[in-house]
Design goal:
Chain lengths: ~375, ~210
């Protein structure tokens, strides 16, 4: 039976990054991804924003962490970001949880660059609905370029990668190792590893449940973003309206279109994994869900703030399950989940609520690697 | 039946209406889902003191099309409608008073508006005489169904407030809504355009709704 130091389950951005890190720490690493390609799920279907704090005017910690991670991400992946546009953050006049003044002051207090937008941009907005519009410093990542970069790194480092390979169950062996059963294109297999990192995002509890491991409280949403062709006036402009039931529209680099998401209409329904209760397989829910677009709602509401959006051309919808930690509901923060020895010795669970959280995770993994609990 | 390709909003003010909301929402939803692909029901809770808020919260779980706005203090019927109109996203917005106004009238009114009317007002034809018992203690509230055509297709959202149309203009004006709430400058002019009055049979209910 093949033996590895570490098995990484899930080939999204977090799994790839984790696998490389472990390999560099000297581990023999096996990375399994159930889909036909890496980074084809949440790491592809997302709004591609490299967060720089502006999204979190009510969570000091998240804003500060994002601002620390932003330059790191840009430095590490300079060829995977799209900086060809300017990101504007507007503050809603009604129903916003912060005022423009509070927003501005908060951003200044965390050291973020923020200025009122120039008239040529302000003209695009309806000031009956927005209170103020700010220029910010934020860019987008290209998930396809990011995937290419990460796959090259992981393969270069010597991680054993298996696509189309689903990890079915995990069990502790008599010797204290972990045994995984795999479903591969050519049939079932078994491998052993000393450590397992569950990086399956929305599927974290599906794997846990099949293995009789504890469920971690998570909240899931079936989300829809609309891919749209934009009118010329919006070229080079990304817009996010804060901080309430509003919307974002910004470039989605791999498609050359923009994604439109709306706080009210992007989530179609939600469910939770609760310890002690039956949990659902999130991708199963995804596959079965009826997917009727909410674009007509998104665009009509968004156009009240940014009237030029009436001229958007709908291309298609991008659907995915979005997973967040329930406690982050209260303050809008998106902390990382890093559960060490989560029910089994050397079985660890990792989930990042946004791409740049990878650096928070890095620090955690390094702690584990140097810690006494790591090696048997 | 092919469904109309437009977004219809229904705006309804609520004040201590817990017993009747569910039936109202179910009835409106039935009509909307039959006739339209895209629709929303905006319930404006005028700071009710009864179980209205909780009841609507439950409905929010069941009906994806329902939205709730809760006013921070009781500001009256007109303000509630205004708040709803200000938030509605429909190409056509119908204001309705739960329990008084017939959901069945929605498609007719929207149709008339689609054919060009900016405002359509319903007039009750079987209004009880003064002194007749009105349900739910909602004395003197007259039919508020109206349609404002706005334009994702034309020049941007334009919500005009309905006017309550007292039969024969005889009613006291306590519940008449005021001129346009459209926050957009120039919204006032739009009221004068092309106002159709639609007379529909409005059976007042005599029993308290569910
Ligand atoms: C609509 C939406 C918008 C978002 N917007 C942003 C944004 O603008 N900026 C930002 O930074 N973040 C954003 N996010 C969050 C971001 O997408 C996630 O934080 C990130 O992609 C998580 O990466 P991951 O590797 O954990 O998950 P994934 O990329 O989903 O990777 C998990 C992988 O595990 C695989 N898998 C599952 N079960 C198994 C199994 N049993 N065996 C083998 N493989 C398995 C899956 O196929 C999948 O490929 C958004 C998310 C959504 C849904």
């Amino acid at each position: 039976m093949p033996q590895f130091d570490s098995l990484v389950v899930g080939g999204g951005f977090f799994g790839l990054y984790t696998a490389e890190l472990l390999r560099h720490a000297g581990h023999e690493v096996l990375l399994c991804e159930k889909e036909a390609d890496f980074m084809s799920r949440a790491s592809y279907v997302n709004q591609a924003r490299v967060h720089n704090g502006y999204h979190y005017p009510r969570s000091f910690l998240t804003a500060v962490r994002s601002r620390a991670n932003y330059p790191r991400f840009l430095k590490e992946f300079p060829d995977c970001v799209d900086r060809s546009f300017t990101q504007y953050y507007a503050v809603g006049r009604h129903y916003s949880k912060v005022t423009a003044r509070q927003y501005y002051r908060f951003m200044r207090s965390v050291g973020a660059d923020i200025e009122p937008a120039p008239p040529r941009v302000r003209r695009l907005f309806d000031f009956d609905h927005v209170e103020q519009v700010f220029v910010t410093e934020e860019c987008a990542f290209d998930p396809v370029l990011l995937k290419r970069a990460m796959v090259a790194r992981v393969e270069g480092a010597g991680v054993v990668c298996r696509l189309g390979t689903r990890v079915e169950t995990l069990h502790q062996t008599a010797e204290g190792g972990l045994r995984a059963t795999l479903e591969t294109p050519t049939g079932a297999e078994t491998v052993e590893a000393r450590h397992v990192f569950n990086c399956t995002y929305s599927q974290i509890n599906a794997l846990a449940r099949r293995s009789g491991l504890p469920v971690i409280p998570l909240k899931h949403e079936l989300t829809e973003m609309a891919l749209v062709g934009i009118p010329d006036e919006l070229r080079g402009i990304g817009v996010t309206v804060m901080c309430g039931p509003f919307f974002s529209i910004m470039p989605f680099p791999p498609r050359g279109h923009y994604t439109l998401s709306h706080v009210r209409y992007t989530p179609h329904f939600q469910w939770e994994d609760r310890p002690g209760e039956r949990t659902l397989d999130a991708h199963g829910v995804f596959d079965r869900a009826e997917k009727t677009t909410s674009f007509p709602y998104m665009v009509r509401d968004a156009a009240r703030y940014l009237p030029v959006l009436t001229q958007c051309r709908y291309v298609e919808s991008l659907w995915e399950v979005k997973t967040v930690l329930p406690l982050s509901e209260t303050d809008d923060s998106r902390p990382i989940l890093f559960a060490r020895d989560a029910g089994l010795r050397n079985y660890h669970v990792i989930m990042g609520g946004k791409i740049d959280n990878v650096y928070d995770m890095t620090d955690e993994i390094k702690k584990v690697l140097s810690g006494k609990a790591m090696d048997a | 039946m092919t469904k109309a390709d437009c977004l219809v909003s229904v705006v309804a003010p609520l004040h201590n209406d817990a017993p009747i909301i569910e039936e109202f929402v179910a009835a409106v939803h039935a009509v909307l889902s039959t006739h339209y692909t895209y629709y929303e029901i905006v319930l404006v809770d005028d700071h009710s003191r009864d179980a209205t808020t909780e009841t609507v919260r439950e409905l929010l779980q069941r009906f994806r099309c329902v939205r709730m706005i809760r006013l921070s203090k009781a500001m009256g019927f007109e303000a509630a409608i205004a708040a709803g109109l200000d938030s509605a996203i429909g190409d056509f917005v119908v204001t309705m008073v739960p329990n008084d106004d017939p959901p069945d009238a929605i498609p007719t009114m929207v149709d008339i508006s689609r054919r060009g009317a900016d405002i359509v007002t319903g007039v009750p034809t079987n209004r009880p005489e003064p002194g007749d018992a009105l349900p739910m203690g909602r004395v003197g509230v007259s039919f508020a169904g109206a349609v404002a055509s706005s334009g994702i297709a034309s020049d941007g959202p334009e919500h005009v407030l309905s006017r309550l149309q007292p039969p024969g203009g005889q009613r006291d004006h306590a519940h008449q809504t005021q001129a346009p709430v459209s926050r957009r400058s120039g919204g006032g002019d739009r009221l004068s355009r092309n106002v159709f009055s639609l007379s529909i049979d409005l059976p007042f209910r005599t029993g308290a709704g569910g």
